[in-house]
Design brief:
With 435 residues, the protein is an alpha/beta fold. The chain has two domains: 46-293, 3-Layer(aba) Sandwich (Aspartate Aminotransferase, domain 2), CATH 3.40.640; 296-426, Aspartate Aminotransferase, domain 1. Helix content is 43%, strand content 13%. Strands 4-10-9-8-7-5-6 form a seven-stranded mixed beta sheet, with helices on both faces. Helix 15 (390-405) packs antiparallel against helix 16. The longest helix is centred in the last third of the chain and has 23 residues, at 296-318. The radius of gyration is 22 Å and the shape is globular. The model has no long low-confidence stretch (mean pLDDT 96). The protein binds pyridoxal-5'-phosphate (PLP). The site of pyridoxal-5'-phosphate has 15 residues, from helix 5.
Length: 435
């Protein structure tokens, strides 16, 4: 029996019910995944007790020798995984990593150019309610409304916009964009207008690590990511620089007159700029997940993620659904429900009753509010981790369609819920509450 079960039955009960929820339902939120027991073990370890402000070998606290080892392993493995020269594994989250990039490259009031939020961009790319939109002047590029490139970013338009607004920084990366990016084209535009190029690969890091999507490493000046989405590590963030050539000059330090490299500036932006002590238990868990990601199994997993997302996209197209951009290059699809007379909000609620977890999502040129939306976003990473293949993803699409066509029919929803449970039982997930 776990100690927690006796000391705090209330929280133990919550954890138990959450494990049951994860075990018994379809998890289709594109930003979620299921970590290994090893990753959970490291996350639940004694390193949670340790203060380790600073970097390996240069800490502000004693007793950091093992924290240093953990962080060195995390950094070395991340560098190998992404073929890059420098990494900081301390950001507590993707948003923290992004904040450190703004702090390093921009001054309050500076202009940057990012992907429109309603076209798949992230809050930290200039939303008016986020620090990025509050402190800096956000300009946006978007996807095409119609024509052969409908739902895709047109690089000529990005260039026109960049020439018009002369941004200090251009950001790439998205939370709901089903296509790959042309990093070379972005870099040419950035060079033409003298802007920094920043790629936020939070969603696609796992696919990029496996070599299945274009890599931004040799094009962007700096790359950020989360570690918990397709990368399948603990919740957290990270900052990377591709090659040495991008890491020459930063700026002259006022006191010493020494020229600092970008890597040093990003390190200082994370700590002491943005954060206090790093979460060493999470950094150890990051190291564990990077080791997993370096294995051949991880590559097969990412192949399956793509195959399953494509199978799901094809099934929805066959059933007459409108998929943004007509399909997917990555792990997610965006279903535009306008031709089905449903809102994203209603779809999310109806599917939730059948234990199918999705999130409502704005579609490009949406006329509904962000609380209602006209679409749902569906991702394959989590259910692929459980071992489901293209056949099961076709069934997932069929079951979703059944619910969406009968959102108020409790009998049909309860029948779908039983089918969801039966499939989940065939692909067991966790047989423990605490690792
Ligand atoms: C998820 C995401 C983030 C934020 O990550 P958090 O860990 O939730 O802060 C940042 N950028 C993009 C593109 C994302 O999809």
């Amino acid at each position: 029996m776990s100690e927690l079960q006796t000391t705090d039955p209330a929280i133990f009960g919550v954890l138990q019910r959450e494990v049951e929820r994860q075990n018994d339902g379809f998890e289709l939120i594109a930003s979620e995944n299921f970590v290994s027991r090893s990753v959970m073990e490291a996350t639940g370890s004694a390193l949670t007790n340790k203060y380790a402000e600073g970097l390996p070998g240069k800490r502000y606290y004693g007793g950091c020798q093992f924290a240093d080892e953990a962080e060195d392993l995390a950094r070395d493995r991340a560098k190998e995984l992404f073929s890059c020269d420098w990494v900081n594994v301390q950001p507590h989250s993707g948003a923290s990593a992004n904040a450190a990039v703004y702090l390093t490259l921009m001054k309050p009031g500076d202009t940057f150019l990012g992907l429109d939020l309603s076209h798949g961009g992230h809050l930290t790319h200039g939303s008016p309610v986020n620090f990025s939109g509050i402190l800096y002047k956000a300009e946006y590029y978007g996807v095409e409304e119609s024509g052969p490139n409908a739902g895709r970013i047109d690089m000529d338009r990005v260039r026109d916009k960049a020439l018009a607004v002369q941004p200090k920084m251009i950001s790439i990366g998205a939370s709901a964009y089903p296509r790959d990016f042309d990093y070379g084209a972005f870099r040419s535009i950035a060079d033409e207008v003298g802007a920094f190029l920043w790629m936020d690969m939070a969603h696609t890091a796992g696919l990029i690590a496996a070599g299945l999507l274009n890599s931004p490493m040799d094009h962007a000046h700096v790359v950020t990511t989360t570690t918990h989405k397709t990368l399948r590590g603990p919740r957290g963030g990270m900052i990377l620089i591709g090659s040495d050539s991008e890491n020459t000059v930063g700026k002259v330090a006022p006191k010493s007159g020494r020229v600092k490299m970008w890597s040093e500036l990003f390190d200082s932006a994370v700590f002491p700029g943005m954060q206090g002590g790093p979460l060493m238990h999470v950094i150890a868990a990051k190291a564990v997940s990077f080791l997993e990601a370096l294995s051949p199994d991880f590559k097969s997993y990412q192949h399956a993620v793509l195959e399953n997302a494509k199978a799901m996209a094809d099934s929805f197209v066959e059933k007459g659904y409108d998929i943004v951009s007509g399909g997917t290059d990555n792990h997610l699809i965006l279903v535009d429900l306008r031709n089905k007379g449903l809102t994203g909000k209603d779809a999310e609620i109806a599917l939730g009753k059948a234990e199918i977890t999705v999130n409502k999502n704005m579609v490009p040129f949406d006329t509904q509010s962000p609380f209602v939306t006209s679409g749902i976003r569906l991702g394959s990473p989590a259910m692929t981790t459980r071992g489901l293949g293209p056949g099961e993803f076709n069934v997932i699409a069929t079951l979703i369609d059944k619910v969406l066509m009968n959102p108020n029919n409790e009998d049909i929803i309860s029948q779908v819920r039983s089918e969801v449970k039966a499939i989940c039982r065939k692909f067991p997930l966790y047989d423990f509450v605490t690792a």
